[in-house]
Amino acid sequence: MSKDLAQRLEEYKANGFTVFEGLFTESQMQSWRTKHQELMDDYDGQTWFGNMLEYAPKLMWSPVKHPTILDFLESVMGPFVQLDNLTLAAFPTVAKDEGEGRASGWHRDRWAKVPQKDIYERPTAANAISYLQDLTTEYGPLRVIAGSHRQPITIAPEDRNKPHPDETLLYMKAGDVVVTHNYLIHSGTPNTADGLRYFFSIYYNSTWLKHTDNHSGPLTQRLLAEARDRDDYRLMRLLGVDVHLQPRCNSGFLSPDEARWAEWIAEDRAAVKAG
Ligand SMILES: O=C(O)CCC(=O)C(=O)O
């Protein structure tokens, strides 16, 4: 494991998130904004779109299989990473007196639970979130409660839209990607800027869970067939096919998990056919 990856892992275990700066390019982001505009036009102003891989495989496959994200996630979750859902959304502007000084809504993410005290567990899911504009005060920072992925913190319903005393505000730049642990408590901030606040979420979960997006569409299946042709098990897993699941999930568990994962990751890499 490279030093950088090991440091990130440590940071992620301690805080429940890590930020990769500048992972997506302006031209990628422009193509995603354009696609979002087309979808909004086609679907009566709808602003929230899941299943984006099927809607736009040519634009979306490259961020979903981004090696930096996948290498990190495999170090965190083991080689058991699938795409749960791919969401491109835009939060419209709200009036300043409605939005200022508020959180959009504190929550943990899909497939989480309230953690036990002081215990780090590997995530069952992880969100790779990016924004297609800089998050200024007006566009609304991401709020996180660092360390809440390993504390049984709860928030009363009446406080779920209020700033939290232990929050950290992340003013991410366009193209930065924050990878969060699904037990991490976080919230957006209402958008009081002039333009749409674009939110792009690549949500991964463990291959033994169900996935939320439908990976059976013809365009997604084409990506799966290409991965199969090359014996690219990592890319097949993303799309819901984990041919090693049974032996790897019944390995006896007498060697350290991370050492076993590293062996399996190396085996998967060696199996990929050039092409
Ligand atoms: O709006 C944001 O910045 C975060 C949104 C979010 O966490 C979510 O929709 O799960």
Question: How would you sum up this structure, described in words?
Answer:
The chain has one domain: q2cbj1_9rhob like domain (Jelly Rolls, Sandwich). The two termini are 26 Å apart. The chain has helices at 3-15, 26-42, 52-55, 57-64, 67-77, 96-99, 218-229, 233-238, 245-248, 257-271; strands at 17-20, 48-49, 81-91, 125-131, 142-144, 168-170, 177-181, 186-187, 197-206. By secondary structure, the protein is of the alpha+beta class. Bound molecules: 2-oxoglutaric acid (AKG). 2-oxoglutaric acid binds at residues 104, 109, 142, 186, 188, 199.
Q: Which residues sit in consecutive blocks of at least 5 with pLDDT less than 50?
A: none
Secondary-structure element sequence? HEHEHHHEHEEEEEEHHHH
Main pleated sheet? 6 strands, antiparallel
Query: Helix count, per DSSP?
Result: 10
Number of strands: 9
**Net shape:** globular
From the helix content, strand content and strand pairing, which structural class follows? alpha+beta
The top level CATH class name:
Mainly Beta
Quickly count the domains: 1
Bound molecules: 2-oxoglutaric acid
Strand order of the largest sheet: 1-7-4-9-3-2
For CATH, the homologous superfamily is named as q2cbj1_9rhob like domain
Strand content: 15-25%
In CATH, the topology is named Jelly Rolls
